[in-house]
Known about the structure:
Layout (H helix, E strand, L loop, with lengths): L1 E5 L3 E7 L2 E6 L2 E5 L5 E7 L3 E5 L3 E3 L5 E12 L2 H6 L4 H18 L3 H6 L1 H18 L2 E12 L2 H43 L2 H15 L11 H6 L14
Antiparallel strand pairs: 1-4, 2-3, 2-5, 6-8, 7-8, 8-9
Helix pairs in contact: 2-4
Amino acid sequence: MAKWIIREYQRGLLYHQGRFTEVLPPGRYRYWPWQGKRIDVVDIRETSQTVEGQEILTSDKIGIRVTLIAQFRVIDPVAARHRVENHVSQLYQDLQLTLREAVSGQTLEGLMQNRDALSSGIQAEVAPRAAKYGVELSRVGVKDIVLPGSVRNVFLQEIEAELKGRASLVAARHEVAAARARANTARLLQENPHLVRMQELELLASLASKSGNVIVIPGLDRVLAREPLPAASPSAEKP
Protein backbone atom coordinates (compact mmCIF):
# COMPACT_ATOMS: atom_id res chain seq x y z
CA MET A 1 0.00 0.00 0.00
CA ALA A 2 1.33 3.41 -0.98
CA LYS A 3 0.93 6.22 1.56
CA TRP A 4 1.10 9.98 1.05
CA ILE A 5 0.85 12.83 3.55
CA ILE A 6 -0.06 16.20 2.09
CA ARG A 7 0.78 18.98 4.54
CA GLU A 8 -1.00 22.31 5.00
CA TYR A 9 1.46 24.16 2.74
CA GLN A 10 1.19 21.56 -0.03
CA ARG A 11 -1.28 20.38 -2.61
CA GLY A 12 -1.50 16.93 -4.19
CA LEU A 13 -2.13 16.10 -7.83
CA LEU A 14 -3.86 12.75 -8.11
CA TYR A 15 -3.18 10.65 -11.23
CA HIS A 16 -5.05 7.49 -12.16
CA GLN A 17 -3.41 5.33 -14.77
CA GLY A 18 -1.27 8.34 -15.75
CA ARG A 19 -4.28 10.64 -16.17
CA PHE A 20 -4.75 13.64 -13.90
CA THR A 21 -8.02 13.50 -11.97
CA GLU A 22 -8.10 16.11 -9.19
CA VAL A 23 -6.21 18.39 -6.78
CA LEU A 24 -6.11 16.91 -3.29
CA PRO A 25 -6.23 19.11 -0.14
CA PRO A 26 -3.96 18.50 2.89
CA GLY A 27 -4.44 15.12 4.53
CA ARG A 28 -3.37 11.47 4.62
CA TYR A 29 -3.99 9.24 1.59
CA ARG A 30 -3.53 5.50 0.95
CA TYR A 31 -3.88 3.58 -2.30
CA TRP A 32 -3.28 -0.03 -3.26
CA PRO A 33 -0.87 -0.65 -6.11
CA TRP A 34 -3.53 -2.41 -8.16
CA GLN A 35 -5.59 0.84 -8.14
CA GLY A 36 -3.03 2.49 -10.41
CA LYS A 37 -3.07 5.80 -8.51
CA ARG A 38 -0.19 8.15 -7.76
CA ILE A 39 0.08 11.54 -6.02
CA ASP A 40 2.45 14.31 -7.03
CA VAL A 41 2.96 16.77 -4.11
CA VAL A 42 3.47 20.47 -4.93
CA ASP A 43 4.76 23.04 -2.42
CA ILE A 44 2.74 26.29 -2.57
CA ARG A 45 4.77 28.32 -0.04
CA GLU A 46 6.44 31.54 -1.10
CA THR A 47 10.13 31.09 -1.77
CA SER A 48 13.00 33.04 -3.25
CA GLN A 49 15.48 32.41 -6.01
CA THR A 50 18.78 34.11 -6.74
CA VAL A 51 19.72 34.75 -10.35
CA GLU A 52 23.49 34.76 -10.18
CA GLY A 53 25.28 37.54 -11.98
CA GLN A 54 26.76 36.82 -15.38
CA GLU A 55 28.87 39.26 -17.32
CA ILE A 56 26.59 41.42 -19.47
CA LEU A 57 27.62 44.23 -21.81
CA THR A 58 25.72 47.48 -21.47
CA SER A 59 24.83 49.58 -24.47
CA ASP A 60 28.06 51.57 -23.97
CA LYS A 61 30.12 48.32 -24.05
CA ILE A 62 30.97 48.01 -20.35
CA GLY A 63 30.89 44.52 -18.85
CA ILE A 64 29.07 44.28 -15.51
CA ARG A 65 27.57 41.57 -13.31
CA VAL A 66 24.04 41.98 -11.96
CA THR A 67 22.54 39.62 -9.38
CA LEU A 68 18.77 39.39 -8.92
CA ILE A 69 16.60 38.02 -6.12
CA ALA A 70 13.04 36.95 -6.99
CA GLN A 71 10.23 35.97 -4.63
CA PHE A 72 7.49 33.73 -5.97
CA ARG A 73 4.97 31.03 -5.12
CA VAL A 74 2.87 28.46 -6.95
CA ILE A 75 -0.76 29.52 -7.26
CA ASP A 76 -1.83 26.87 -9.79
CA PRO A 77 -0.27 23.47 -9.06
CA VAL A 78 -1.76 21.93 -12.19
CA ALA A 79 -0.21 24.52 -14.50
CA ALA A 80 3.10 24.37 -12.64
CA ARG A 81 3.35 20.63 -13.33
CA HIS A 82 1.70 20.33 -16.73
CA ARG A 83 2.74 23.40 -18.73
CA VAL A 84 6.48 23.34 -18.03
CA GLU A 85 8.90 20.60 -17.12
CA ASN A 86 10.22 22.45 -14.05
CA HIS A 87 8.60 25.71 -13.00
CA VAL A 88 11.57 26.79 -10.85
CA SER A 89 14.06 26.27 -13.66
CA GLN A 90 11.73 27.95 -16.16
CA LEU A 91 11.36 31.01 -13.93
CA TYR A 92 15.13 31.20 -13.55
CA GLN A 93 15.61 31.17 -17.32
CA ASP A 94 12.94 33.82 -17.88
CA LEU A 95 14.51 36.12 -15.29
CA GLN A 96 18.00 35.59 -16.66
CA LEU A 97 17.06 36.31 -20.26
CA THR A 98 14.98 39.35 -19.35
CA LEU A 99 17.82 40.70 -17.20
CA ARG A 100 20.26 40.33 -20.08
CA GLU A 101 17.93 42.15 -22.47
CA ALA A 102 17.27 44.95 -19.98
CA VAL A 103 20.94 45.54 -19.16
CA SER A 104 22.16 45.40 -22.75
CA GLY A 105 19.62 48.07 -23.72
CA GLN A 106 20.83 50.69 -21.23
CA THR A 107 24.00 52.62 -20.45
CA LEU A 108 25.93 52.02 -17.25
CA GLU A 109 25.06 55.46 -15.92
CA GLY A 110 21.38 54.86 -16.59
CA LEU A 111 21.49 51.53 -14.75
CA MET A 112 23.21 53.00 -11.71
CA GLN A 113 20.69 55.83 -11.49
CA ASN A 114 17.60 53.65 -12.06
CA ARG A 115 18.13 50.39 -10.19
CA ASP A 116 14.52 50.39 -9.02
CA ALA A 117 13.31 50.90 -12.57
CA LEU A 118 15.39 47.90 -13.67
CA SER A 119 13.78 45.67 -11.01
CA SER A 120 10.24 46.82 -11.71
CA GLY A 121 10.76 46.46 -15.46
CA ILE A 122 11.97 42.88 -15.13
CA GLN A 123 9.07 41.98 -12.87
CA ALA A 124 6.53 43.54 -15.24
CA GLU A 125 8.05 41.57 -18.13
CA VAL A 126 8.36 38.17 -16.43
CA ALA A 127 5.23 38.11 -14.24
CA PRO A 128 2.76 37.50 -17.12
CA ARG A 129 4.90 34.65 -18.44
CA ALA A 130 5.20 33.06 -15.01
CA ALA A 131 1.44 33.28 -14.49
CA LYS A 132 0.94 31.04 -17.53
CA TYR A 133 2.69 28.16 -15.78
CA GLY A 134 1.04 28.78 -12.41
CA VAL A 135 3.66 30.92 -10.65
CA GLU A 136 3.01 34.30 -9.04
CA LEU A 137 6.09 36.54 -9.15
CA SER A 138 5.59 38.88 -6.18
CA ARG A 139 8.90 40.75 -6.11
CA VAL A 140 12.13 41.21 -8.03
CA GLY A 141 15.09 43.13 -6.63
CA VAL A 142 18.64 43.92 -7.68
CA LYS A 143 20.93 42.41 -5.07
CA ASP A 144 24.16 43.93 -6.36
CA ILE A 145 25.90 45.31 -9.43
CA VAL A 146 29.57 44.45 -9.79
CA LEU A 147 31.60 46.90 -11.88
CA PRO A 148 35.08 46.50 -13.38
CA GLY A 149 37.86 47.90 -11.19
CA SER A 150 38.70 50.82 -13.48
CA VAL A 151 35.06 51.83 -13.82
CA ARG A 152 34.56 51.58 -10.05
CA ASN A 153 37.46 54.01 -9.47
CA VAL A 154 35.96 56.49 -11.91
CA PHE A 155 32.60 56.34 -10.15
CA LEU A 156 34.25 56.88 -6.76
CA GLN A 157 36.08 59.92 -8.08
CA GLU A 158 32.87 61.33 -9.51
CA ILE A 159 31.03 60.79 -6.22
CA GLU A 160 33.85 62.45 -4.27
CA ALA A 161 33.88 65.43 -6.63
CA GLU A 162 30.10 65.75 -6.36
CA LEU A 163 30.23 65.73 -2.55
CA LYS A 164 32.94 68.39 -2.53
CA GLY A 165 30.93 70.50 -4.93
CA ARG A 166 27.85 70.26 -2.72
CA ALA A 167 29.87 71.25 0.34
CA SER A 168 31.30 74.27 -1.48
CA LEU A 169 27.84 75.29 -2.63
CA VAL A 170 26.44 75.10 0.90
CA ALA A 171 29.36 77.15 2.26
CA ALA A 172 28.85 79.77 -0.44
CA ARG A 173 25.16 80.01 0.39
CA HIS A 174 25.96 80.57 4.06
CA GLU A 175 28.47 83.28 3.19
CA VAL A 176 25.92 85.06 1.00
CA ALA A 177 23.32 84.86 3.76
CA ALA A 178 25.77 86.25 6.33
CA ALA A 179 26.77 89.10 4.00
CA ARG A 180 23.13 89.99 3.45
CA ALA A 181 22.50 89.98 7.20
CA ARG A 182 25.46 92.32 7.80
CA ALA A 183 24.31 94.63 5.04
CA ASN A 184 20.79 94.77 6.50
CA THR A 185 22.19 95.54 9.95
CA ALA A 186 24.39 98.34 8.62
CA ARG A 187 21.47 99.89 6.75
CA LEU A 188 19.25 99.67 9.83
CA LEU A 189 21.86 101.35 12.05
CA GLN A 190 22.40 104.06 9.47
CA GLU A 191 18.69 104.81 9.36
CA ASN A 192 18.34 104.67 13.18
CA PRO A 193 21.55 105.96 14.84
CA HIS A 194 20.01 105.77 18.32
CA LEU A 195 20.01 101.96 18.05
CA VAL A 196 23.79 102.00 18.46
CA ARG A 197 23.52 103.97 21.70
CA MET A 198 20.81 101.59 22.95
CA GLN A 199 23.03 98.60 22.26
CA GLU A 200 25.89 100.28 24.16
CA LEU A 201 23.66 100.92 27.16
CA GLU A 202 22.38 97.33 27.14
CA LEU A 203 25.95 96.07 27.06
CA LEU A 204 26.96 98.35 29.94
CA ALA A 205 23.97 97.21 31.98
CA SER A 206 24.90 93.58 31.35
CA LEU A 207 28.50 94.20 32.44
CA ALA A 208 27.48 96.20 35.50
CA SER A 209 25.29 93.36 36.74
CA LYS A 210 28.36 91.19 37.28
CA SER A 211 30.21 91.66 40.57
CA GLY A 212 33.71 93.12 40.47
CA ASN A 213 33.20 95.07 37.23
CA VAL A 214 33.91 98.80 37.17
CA ILE A 215 32.14 100.71 34.42
CA VAL A 216 33.71 103.96 33.20
CA ILE A 217 31.47 106.12 31.00
CA PRO A 218 33.36 108.79 29.07
CA GLY A 219 31.90 112.30 29.52
CA LEU A 220 29.83 111.34 32.55
CA ASP A 221 31.48 114.13 34.65
CA ARG A 222 30.26 116.74 32.20
CA VAL A 223 26.76 115.39 32.41
CA LEU A 224 26.77 115.54 36.22
CA ALA A 225 28.35 119.07 36.31
CA ARG A 226 25.70 120.51 34.06
CA GLU A 227 23.62 123.22 35.81
CA PRO A 228 20.00 122.36 36.43
CA LEU A 229 17.38 124.07 34.38
CA PRO A 230 15.83 127.24 35.96
CA ALA A 231 12.48 126.76 37.69
CA ALA A 232 9.45 128.07 35.93
CA SER A 233 8.38 131.56 37.15
CA PRO A 234 4.95 131.83 38.76
CA SER A 235 2.34 133.28 36.55
CA ALA A 236 1.36 136.93 37.26
CA GLU A 237 -1.87 137.47 39.15
CA LYS A 238 -4.61 139.13 37.33
CA PRO A 239 -5.67 142.59 38.74
